[in-house]
Write a structure and sequence with these properties.
11 strands, about 0% helix, globular, mainly beta, 4-stranded antiparallel β-sheet, 7-stranded mixed β-sheet
């Protein structure tokens, strides 16, 4: 069992930045790929970014490529999402998730554990 707790969300103006953190405990964090998803009101949960178990590979949704950066610190059991040049359309609840395996996955089905989410609101 992996327990995930997100932090770092909040209200920011368009063009601003935030860094989300996801602290993991109770399981094999370092042997799992990690991902970030988001869900806006009335919309389905969508993939944002993912990183492989050692951090050597990452993948991004086209909508955030070049603006968001995912990273991880296996010594601290933490994964991060740095978000720059934020836009109002980035407003959503952001979820951290631990994959079932070591390699990058982009669909919710491939993730075994989820955090409770943190709200990100970008004002125009």
């Amino acid at each position: 069992q992996v327990h995930l707790v997100e932090s770092g969300g909040g209200l920011v103006q368009a063009g601003g930045s935030l860094r989300l953190s996801c602290a993991a405990s109770g399981g094999t964090f370092s042997s799992r790929a990690m991902g970030w998803f988001r869900q806006a009101p009335g919309k389905e949960r969508e993939f944002v970014a993912a990183i492989s178990w050692l951090g050597g590979r990452s993948r991004y949704a086209d909508s955030v490529k070049g603006r968001f950066t995912i990273s991880r610190d296996n010594a601290e059991n933490t994964v991060y999402l740095r978000m720059d040049s934020l836009r109002p359309e980035d407003t959503a609840v952001y979820y951290c998730a631990a994959a079932s395996g070591q390699y990058i996955a982009t669909i919710p089905f491939d993730y075994a554990y989820w955090g409770q989410g943190t709200q990100v609101t970008v004002s125009s």
